[in-house]
Amino acid sequence: MPDEQWQQLVETRLSRLELESAVEAERYRQLTERLDSIDGHLGWIFKSVLGAIIIAAVTFIVKGGLVA
User: Fold this and answer.
1) Residue 5 in this model has a pLDDT that exceeds 70
2) Among 1, 9, 42, 65, which residue has the least CB neighbours within 10 Å?
3) Distance, CA of 4 to CA of 9 (rounded, Å)
4) Residue 2: which pLDDT band, with cuts at 50, 70 and 90?
5) Virtual torsion, Cα 39, 42, 44, 46, nearest 10 deg
6) Whole-number Å distance between alpha carbons of 63 and 61
7) Residue 19, CA distances (Å) to 5, 14, 26, 65 in order
8) Residues 6+ apart with CB under 8 A from 9
9) What is the C-alpha separation between 58 and 37, in angstroms, rounded?
10) C-alpha span between 46 and 68 (Å, rounded)
11) Which three-class secondary structure state does DSSP give residue 4?
12) The pLDDT of residue 68
């Protein structure tokens, strides 16, 4: 195989690898953003559930639930 063909083949493969790498990096960035968003939502859900439990306990105590 002549040097020019070999060089063209190597450049083509390198270009393809660079493109695939850029696509994968973008996918990774988007997945990271989505996971961060899900993490934020889970935090608010946890806070809401915990707040509801605390309010229920306080309501139970205020209505005399601990009086023997």
Assistant:
1) yes
2) 1
3) 9
4) confident
5) -140
6) 6
7) 21, 9, 11, 66
8) 1
9) 32
10) 33
11) helix
12) 63
